[in-house]
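A favour, since you know our structure tokens better than I do. Could you add the entry underneath, on a fresh line?
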Amino acid sequence: EYDGDRNAEGERHGFGKARLPNGDTYEGEYEHGLRSGRGTYRFKSGALYTGSYLQNRKHGKGIFFYPDGSKYAGDWVNDQRQGQGEYTYANGDTYTGEWFNHMRHGQGTYIYKDTGSKYVGHWVNGIQEGPAELIHLNHRFQGRFFNGKPLGRGKYVFDFGCEQHGEYVQLEQVK
């Protein structure tokens, strides 16, 4: 079902409301039959996206509310989280920073809600990797991460003024 503006060729063009065969709905702008411009897409699953579209794909600024209670607000490119954005996870953790191809990638800050700890550093394809600082309640670790774990030279800095310098080595453990 569609209720809205059309162009001379009869295509959806301008503002309109649509109910799709799968039960999803869209209300917003169209251009030559495709969602383009600002709009709100409600998924039958309970998810909701409100933001910019380009040729039926999320593109530009937008907010996506997921059925599990998580939320992403930020940049989209070709239906993927890409650019700057903030993701609030269902457990209350948050990530604010760079995204590429739907993954945390580049510089970002991840805050663990339960402990208040904070990872401030680099990400590669969704994994903590590169120079970073892991900040806890009364101390912090400064060093490099590889594959989500500290590796190589680094230091702990404690709030009472002490530092502990050392090197992280990944050991294979026998299970």
User: Anything to note?
Assistant: Residues 11 and 33 are 5 Å apart (CA to CA). The chain has a mean pLDDT of 96.
